[in-house]
């Protein structure tokens, strides 16, 4: 068996084409361009690269990217203030705080300063609750991208056993919630899990979300399983790919699998937020008493 590639680049390109059409329609209807504000703290080269990539994708989709770069020495209070200002700015539709932020900052406090209506990266408690309860809201961008990628290949989820390796608040945990909402049976694994190999071997769907190259051995993969590698470190994923490809039915490449879907999901949620903001600005029409 040789795994079929889950081609995130191709699926993301199709999604971004749709986003571009939706942006054009939005501009024609409302006379303004949707705006995604990106907040970058510090001078980490990888973070700068990611923000630049997102800005370029915004431009190609017809959106405006408003970039705010802050010194690594700022306080949590200053960061929270800046994010609240963006939340209050009617010209801004979506807000992305590039993570991780410098270690001295309270990242959770910063995330919670983002208006949930502009949380297009799905990092607030409100967004997580919406994912957990199956309510309308924004998905965490990478887990949301994973779900869109699985759907693009018509991979059934209901009744299947999904093992999520990793429990971060913006990747592992929400990925499990989204799979659970689609009627998969979900097991979370983490650094304290006993016999990780055995847990992975039980999985119909594996989502690797740790950032430790080669953590998931190919020999652990159940024959025919679907493997989504969301880990990334030194241009390598969490899964031992060559060996996993001999056993899995579907497998994401690294790079070119989950990464492109993250950005595409972010922009899809930004145009959705822009439409919701315009709908909220429209005055509600109340019936006139006595009218015929």
TrEMBL record:
Select a single GO molecular function from the record's annotations and give it. methylenetetrahydrofolate dehydrogenase (NADP+) activity
Query: In which pathway does this enzyme or protein participate?
Result: One-carbon metabolism; tetrahydrofolate interconversion
The record's catalysed reaction(s) read:
(6R)-5,10-methylene-5,6,7,8-tetrahydrofolate + NADP(+) = (6R)-5,10-methenyltetrahydrofolate + NADPH; (6R)-5,10-methenyltetrahydrofolate + H2O = (6R)-10-formyltetrahydrofolate + H(+)
Question: For this chain's UniProt record, which GO biological process terms are given?
Answer: L-histidine biosynthetic process; methionine biosynthetic process; purine nucleotide biosynthetic process; tetrahydrofolate interconversion
| Keyword Oxidoreductase appears in the UniProt entry | yes
Q: Where does NADP(+) bind?
A: 166-168
Q: Which residues form the Tetrahydrofolate dehydrogenase/cyclohydrolase catalytic domain?
A: 6-121
Q: How does it assemble?
A: Homodimer.
| Family under the similarity heading | Belongs to the tetrahydrofolate dehydrogenase/cyclohydrolase family.
Q: What does this protein do?
A: Catalyzes the oxidation of 5,10-methylenetetrahydrofolate to 5,10-methenyltetrahydrofolate and then the hydrolysis of 5,10-methenyltetrahydrofolate to 10-formyltetrahydrofolate.
Task: State what protein this is by name.
Answer: Bifunctional protein FolD
| Gene designation per UniProt | folD
